[in-house]
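Write out the 3D structure for:
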Amino acid sequence: MSGSLNIKPSRVERDKRLAAYQPLSGMVVPRFAGISTFMRLPHILPESAPGEIDIALLGIPFDGATTNRPGTRLGPRQVREASSLMRLVNYGTLVAPYDLCACADVGDVPVNPIDVSDTLGRIEAQIAHLHAAGITPLSVGGDHIVSYPILRALGAREPVGLIHVDAHSDTGDTYFGGQKLTHGTPFRRAIEDGVLDPKRMVQIGIRGTMYSTDERDWALDQGIRIIDMEEVAEKGIPYAIAEARRVVGQGRTYFTFDIDSIDPAFAPGTGTPEIGGFTSREALQLVRGFRHLDLVGADMVEVSPPLDPTGGTALVGASIAFELLCLLAEARSERN
């Protein structure tokens, strides 16, 4: 008899795992104390994660593909600190992610700050390692190029769909005389590589100026559904949610959230701010609208702490990351 038996863990074993991977309680150790991890979760090494956890939270401290204002390499560290303000239950949806899945902070991808290609290879390898072990990744960047190697890892066998909340399409082709790997090109590269299905890709909140109409024209030619900010304003967030759900369907889907989708009045600490964006409250409403989809991973990117000394943008980013965690935990629980 070939192959291996797929033996599901008993409820007792599952409960023991969940109990071992709970956030540090603010009722035991004050939230201003202790070592910073995402959501105050236990920290384990990526090589220890298989068989232990269901969802891995990881930082990708890289901004080497940024073309203007840097600083997102410092995003994961400040988002970790801000995430100490998150508690156990989502007030809006009543999802309690740590009752559904064993979650842990697996640290940062060991990026190479002076080599984009090398860094992308390291990210892809780390995500592929987690994915092969059946672990769902939730990443905090970093600039938006980090989504590209994640999609390469998750879509290697079958292209995934994508919910993309952003002020920018990020489907440009080249920058500075032929550079193809920048934070403005990740989704064109992923589609070209066949790891992202453009007909199951939706972009929400796109606005602002462009270098060329090519990036929009190219995206539309591939079949990407763009719900720009003008359409959201005209038809409403419930419409945008319903339309996005129609596009991605029930297939395997990734969720990427760029903090610059939020208006700089609420999140100024980002490299490419665009006025006229979502309020922080609207962003919560939008993300919460994507429950019960087959989400296989997510990221929140482009928080740049040096551009917001108040730390407010990192708090917005941590809050969105918690919302994404709730979506992933619920989706994984429903798959199981």
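The radius of gyration is 19 Å.
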